[in-house]
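Justification of computing resources. Each target in the renewal requires a structure prediction run like the one illustrated here; the chain below, 379 residues long, is used simply to show the kind of job we budget for.
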Amino acid sequence: MTQIPDLQGGCRWQGLAMDGHARTGVLHTAHGPMETPAFMAVGTVGTVKAMTADAVRATGTQCVLGNTYHLMLRPGGDRIEALGGLHRFMDWPGPILTDSGGFQVMSLASLRQLDVDGVTFRSHIDGSRHRLTPAIAVGLQHQFDSTITMVLDECTPFPADHDTARASMELSLRWAERSKQAFRPRPGYGLFGIVQGSTYPDLRAWSAAGLRDIGFDGYAVGGLAVGEGQAAMLRTLDVTVTLLPREAPRYLMGVGTPDDLLESVRRGIDMFDCVMPTRAGRTARAFTSQGARNLRNARHAADARPLDPGCPCPACQRHSRAYLHHLFRTEEMLGPMLLTWHNLTYYQRLMQGMRAAIRDHRLDDHIAGVRAGWAAAED
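Resulting structure tokens:
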């Protein structure tokens, strides 16, 4: 039996196998283990949209995300803490990672004012005034009882010239240090730093070195998948991943498409999140082993076949493409529910397949096989 690492110092990642730069392992936490590479379902306000907690578990999801910005506005840190923390609040006893809210605040360009200590902003809901600093962001995540806390950072917009990206990265480094000072270590809980620097290799190296000097339980790569394109994203990963500690988990934030996952795992990324599978599910787009399908397309109206024959989800095992098409054409809420369930299942099976391929040292062949299936896409 593989020995579980000592969690007294925080959550711990245990590597099990490598294939090139790709690796598989287990992140041991206070709320249970998470096998990596892992895709984490996005539950921004304490729920994965269109899904019950039992349904999310059934997809194979081991960790979900919450968002500090949204949860601080509704229902608030004090209320979540009084109700027993986010795990009890949303019926998710497993690991929960919470984003610090920096990305959401930075996107409110007309509603926020940035300074060296933090950001003051107005709620997009009612215009009320709020303040977010590294200490406040970390304190809120403590109230949530987040398994993995993210430092407050400034997500650098794209495109950004070198001077702008440098100033943003340096601010994020200062905030990372203050986040570390505010974090209260507990057995099995972790704090992750976030590497910034846009697509500039020297800035990414600077950021990674600074975060390593501070010291974190895990390291995220932020500021990608924001418009730079896959090629630039992968070039940035090629530079960045090699600068991160081998013994710590690596998390690529907000990514992405199934192909993004294949290529990023190949480069050594361990953790992912993205709204894509759930958002696509609500808009009739399905990810399958034969490529993406639009269930609104008339070609599915009389098709009795399952959406993806090898998939174990209810959408595939109990319904036809024709029925799914009917649900979306009649705007029945069951359509988004079933397709979200399917898409999350597809993403989890994609990760399971890569974990197995890494253990067997056949990742390249596995990726080629996945892509061959996509080439058979019908629409």
